[in-house]
Amino acid sequence: MVENSCGFIQLESSKFELAMAPGGNVCKDVHDSHPTISGYDISTTKAESNAIQSKGTAGLAGKHGVYSNNGVHELLECPVCTNLMYPPIHQCPNGHTLCSNCKIRVHNCCPTCRYDLGNIRCLALEKVAESLELPCKYQNLGCHDIFPYYSKLKHEQHCRFRPYNCPYAGSECSVTGDIQTLVAHLKDDHKVDMHDGCTFNHRYVKSNPHEVENATWMLTVFNCFGRQFCLHFEAFQLGMAPVYMAFLRFMGDDNEAKKFSYSLEVGGNGRKLIWQGIPRSIRDSHKKVRDSQDGLIIQRNLALYFSGGDRQELKLRVTGRIWKEE
Ligand SMILES: [Zn+2]
Ligand SMILES: [Zn+2]
Ligand SMILES: [Zn+2]
Ligand SMILES: [Zn+2]
Asked: Closest Cα partner for 211 from 313, 316, 315?
């Protein structure tokens, strides 16, 4: 067990350490100069012996999961930003680890010992991570799955329990939460109009329609089939052309959004434009839906024609319906 007393990390990268700190027993130096991190070394050693014992067996990542071993889990937290570290994990010549984002931020100077970081990978820790299984970070929101360390991040980006972003457009709103929370937030904080029913008849009036700036938008929420739908209406510049666009987003995931359809109609002076579509999930950002032009688009000239009168005022009547596909 002599090698264990020096720690797995040091063994793996001893070549680098010798090159960077010639003549020193790095493991001993670490203990002497940084007594506070001795727990770190001990945990690493434990993880290493586990890994060695279970090599070639399924034991380590099996039912019991190593994630219960807090020591190992903590080892993988970057001491600078406290996020979990992913390859390449870096270390200084004295063995202090940090994540690749932080390595750039600290300008190559170890935040713990001020030594030059160099370009030393901590392959051992990367391998220990590979053997771990961790619960999804949305465990408290209902996800009970457990993932190999390196798949966890990817899963979390798509986990169906992850919170939704606030669907309000026009200002960057950082509020996240489940649908119920967001509906209350839209009502209370953004003063959004809420309507019950699956048909609607809306009038959009604007007195100076020749100012088309991206900030012109409206949001209305419909309660329909026990679910919520966001009707967006806005003016923006599509290429050279000023346009108005209306589209619907579903407050829920994409697989459920697909079960609904909607239609929008706008017209006047005996003309009519009709759009039929499928609401987009609010997982897709407002901007993404707008940029994909997945909605009713009305050129401003036509919109003014629909408005009648002297083209000095925009008066659009948009009617619509939401239904469930069987
Ligand atoms: Zn970091
Ligand atoms: Zn250091
Ligand atoms: Zn999950
Ligand atoms: Zn908001």
From this structure: 313
Strand partners, 242: 237
Q: Give this prediction's pTM.
A: 0.68
Ion ligand 3, residues whose Cβ is below 5 A away: 136, 138, 143, 159
Supply 277's token pair. Answer: 């579509």
Ligand nearest 106 Cα, by number?
1
Contact indicator for 122, 97 with CB cutoff of 8 Å: yes
d(Cα 142, Cα 278) in Å, to the nearest integer? 28
Show the tokens assigned to 191.
């003063």
Tens-place pLDDT, residues 249-306: 999 999 999 999 999 999 988 889 999 999 999 999 988 999 999 999 999 889 888 8
Question: Which tens digit of pLDDT belongs to each residue from 192-224?
Answer: 999 999 999 988 887 776 665 545 678 999 999
Ligand 1 centre to CA of 279 (Å) is 39
Task: Of 26, 232, 225, give the one whose Cα is nearest residue 113.
Answer: 26
